[in-house]
Amino acid sequence: MCAEELDFVEKYDLLGCIQCGRCTGGCPVALRTDLRVRCFMYDTQNEERLEEISEKPEIWDCTTCYTCAARCPKGLEPLEVLIGLRSLQIEEGKVQPTVRDALESIFKDGNPWGSPRAKRLDWASDLDVKVLEPEAEETTDVLLFICCTDCYDPRVMKVAQALIKVLNAAGVDYGLIGEDESCCGSEVRRLGEEGLFEMCDEENVELLNSFNVNRIVAISPHCYNTLKKEYHGLKVPVLHYTELVAELLEEGKLEIPKEIAKVVTYHDPCFLGKQNDIYDEPRYIITRIPGVEFKEFDRCRERSLCCEGGGGKMWVESESKEERLAEIRIEDAKEMGAQVVAVACPFCLLTLEDATKVKGVEEEMQVMDILELLAEAL
Amino acid sequence: MKDIFVLIEHRRGEMRDVSVEMLCGAGKLGGTVVAVLLGKDVDAFADKAAGYADKVLYVNDAMFENYNSELYQKALSALIKEHGPGLVLMGNTAQGVDLAPALAVELGAPLVTDVTAVEMDGDKPKPTRTFYGGKLDAHLAMKDADLYILTIREATFQAEDPSKSGEIVKVDNPVSEDVAYRKFVEYVEPEVGDVDITQSTLLVGVGRGIREDKNMPVVEELAQAIGADLAASRAVVDAGWLPSDRQVGISGKTVKPKLYLAVGISGAFQHVTGMKGSEVIVAINKDPDAPIFGIADYGIVDDLFKVVPKLVEKIKELKGA
Amino acid sequence: MNMVVCVKRVPDTSESEVHIDASGKDIDKSRLSFGINECDNYAVEEAIQIKERLEGNVTVISLGGKDSDEVIRMALAKGGDDAIRLEDDAFAGGDALAVAKALAGAVKGLEYDIVFTGALTDDDGYAAVPVALAELLGVPHATYVKKVEILEPGKKAKVGRELEGGLMEFLEIDMPCVLGIQTGINEPRYASFKGIKQAAKKEIAVKSAADLGLDAADIGEAGSWAVLEQFTPPVVGEMAEILEGEPDETAAKLAGILKEKGLV
């Protein structure tokens, strides 16, 4: 047994759990899968059963949305117990082939999508962008950290392209990393691949620190969260793009000339809202667009419903046949008459857009990143 | 010029096409073309081969009822030593690849496998073959020797009508005893599923580009809209997203539907071999350099996840109209 | 059961453009990533699974420079026991025969029941190493193997070879033997990063041509059946008519063509 297993109880403070059940009560996936996180808080206290418990398929249902931790009266993080159990499976090599392929691809090509590093900047091939040189003498204000999904997914690519349009309009001094950019490892950690995450941490911190920049702006809340809270030794502050764009609007550096006369709602990404308390900036940006009629979901901000795109779920299919949370979300949006569901995360974009197709509302309702909405109004 | 040996490949009562192709191709290289046939009571194949060869060496023995690399190697080695050909051709098939390298090592004869083109420089062949999954052609120089062996990719040479009537020479089996260390047991047919894609008139072929099992509905909807059956490349079957009886290619089925709509298939040789006889081939792939566009009639260079749903829509509209 | 599994580190060109370099005899590998040859990955898994069922020892062998340690360690992390890497400038430019000779030199010094290799490599695709290796070792072989059943450990196995059209040919084969493994025979496991790091503690014995008792004339270009004269881009047939436009337009054009031809 390795050291991690021996101090499972200590590592996750399992004896501090009072079995109140608020974690399971708040867990969004408990609505549609067998996952009962409270049970895991209890069962994993018996270290001899860890291996057996880690074989339970529902440990892979967790989206690591953080609701359980946010609601725990004892300040515990039940989701971390599930990640710990995943680690045991990873050590044994027992993971779904899709997870295996994603992790191997990150190790080999620096992205989970099985695409060559040489194509990492293809999304910007028609754009005039600066690729930063390490150890440059001149300081660049903003380093853009582009998520792998934005680099390779043809749909999400448009969000990164919109970001460039917005920054150009505001005259921001920014640069890209280019082909040397690698996966942040947020999903790697959440899939339980601790060792590979440590590699991401070390290599990315070294790379990022080599650039002469004032700040790093991440396009995805997952990258943002990891760079900001989970990396060791980054020298400059990390922002999410909504923070930068809100700042540009506030300082009058970005004008929005066109009108978008649509009913727009906003879906809070878990990694931006629940995990980093960024609720106001996205709403500020959306409501600054002329013509927009903004409506809130009933379940918004801290109570926002997870889209099920995080926690490595892009590579793990749940066995549940129940309606996906993203579909519930789209139904709610339809009920309030939203024409656009705005998001600020690549995974939310993909899961919610899929759900509009499942629900057959893709004609009447668009899922757009805030950046796309903004770029349209420029 | 020395003789060229062409090993006739047959299995379960059928002579394989590549054998005739090689006999025809060998005829153009110069030299006497000798068909070598090992089998049990396969006189019909000897007759057929004679139509393309200057001579047929026919060993009729129960030992050769089913292919066994060890026995084939012993027999061929003896025949080669006796007759002294300068070149031996075999199909680059599951049989040829299982046999040729061992024979080449035994006889000290340079071997190049999976040859797609060959020219002769006197008695010495200059072969071309592909590297990196068909992305490059490699031109090779073989070492000087008295004997060369090539395994020839299917369809490298064109089969033509028979134009010869070679002499059929029945040869005593040069192998005196059977081997015990490798024994044929049985053939097992691939499992038969609900659909026989060799009988389908419309097929949607899905490849690695689909990326994940959970994306399969994208192509399922397309197949449904067209009224087609789903076929797959090797990668998709290896991943378990479709059963093996849907695999098209050398190690899968050969299909000749009216329409083969290749979605996310790059067009590796092994797949193309199984579907190139389709009447109309359409390819949707985001890589403009994908070899599939070289054999397709129509192509769309774009992300399949964007195009296919639109295509489903348009087809439904047309059908509704 | 003592098993040997041969692995090769190859560039991944499946989704990348391949450019011929200035020499015309190699490709520009600077922008390519590398990993274990696909079939070899299945060969490793097969050996490890047999070891788990029947106990035994798995020795990993790779011919290549220090970079190849990465794929060796991955195989060790999955359950391999020992490793040998064959490194010598004299190995350069070798084809399947030269590689088989080097591998045979390494395998001869080991006790083995089965040597596993991939059926073919993703780079040159000769598919000749397993069969040539068996002949050099003087043991029986089977390649394109997609099923292995051990009938008597150390003595006899039943293997299924994948033939054209999905047909399987089953045969019984005596050990020791060499099996060339085809993709799809199993589901390769994941090697965790930590496992690979731990595997780095295991010693990889590095052997030169001289250590294997091989003469320079036997290996590399000199010991090959054929040498590469030059690469050229493949000759493409008549290209497809490419439908241009946004997805909306291309889809409409295609639907129109299919309708016109009576296919929908």
Tell me briefly what this model is.
The complex is a heterotrimer of chains A (378), B (321) and C (264). Chain A is of the alpha/beta class.
**Would you list the SSEs of chain C in sequence order as H and E?**
EEEHEHEHEHEEEEHEEEH
Low-pLDDT parts of chain A are 1-5
Most extensive chain-chain interface: B-C, 99 and 83 residues
The spatial strand order of the largest sheet of chain A comes to 2-1-3-4
Task: Summarize the structure in words.
- The complex is a heterotrimer of chains A (about 375), B (about 325) and C (about 260).
- With about 375 residues, chain A is an alpha/beta fold.
- Chain A has 3 domains: about 5-90, Alpha-helical ferredoxin (Fumarate Reductase Iron-sulfur Protein, Chain B, domain 2), CATH 1.10.1060.10; about 100-250, Rossmann fold (3-Layer(aba) Sandwich), CATH 3.40.50.1860; about 255-375, 3-Layer(aba) Sandwich (Rossmann fold), CATH 3.40.50.
- Chain A has 18 helices and 8 strands.
- The radius of gyration of chain A is 21 Å and the shape is globular.
- Mean pLDDT of chain A is about 95; it is low at about 1-5.
- With about 325 residues, chain B is α/β, with parallel strands linked by helices.
- Chain B has 2 domains: about 5-170, HUPs (Rossmann fold, 3-Layer(aba) Sandwich), CATH 3.40.50; about 195-320, TPP-binding domain (Rossmann fold, 3-Layer(aba) Sandwich).
- Chain B is built from 9 helices and 17 strands.
- Chain B has helices spanning about 15-30, 45-50, 70-85, 95-105, 215-225, 235-240, 270-275, 290-295, 305-320, and strands at about 5, 10, 15, 35-40, 55-60, 85-90, 110-120, 125-130, 135-140, 150, 165-170, 180-190, 200-205, 230, 260-265, 280-285, 300.
- The mean pLDDT of chain B is about 95.
- Chain C is α/β, with parallel strands linked by helices.
- Chain C has one domain (about 1-220): Rossmann fold, CATH 3.40.50.620.
- Helix content of chain C is about 25%, strand content about 30%.
- Chain C contains 6 helices and 13 strands.
- In chain C, helix 2 (about 70-80) packs across helix 5 and helix 3 crosses helix 4.
- At the B-C interface, helix 4, strand 7, strand 8, strand 9 and strand 12 of B face helix 3, helix 4, strand 7, strand 8 and strand 9 of C.
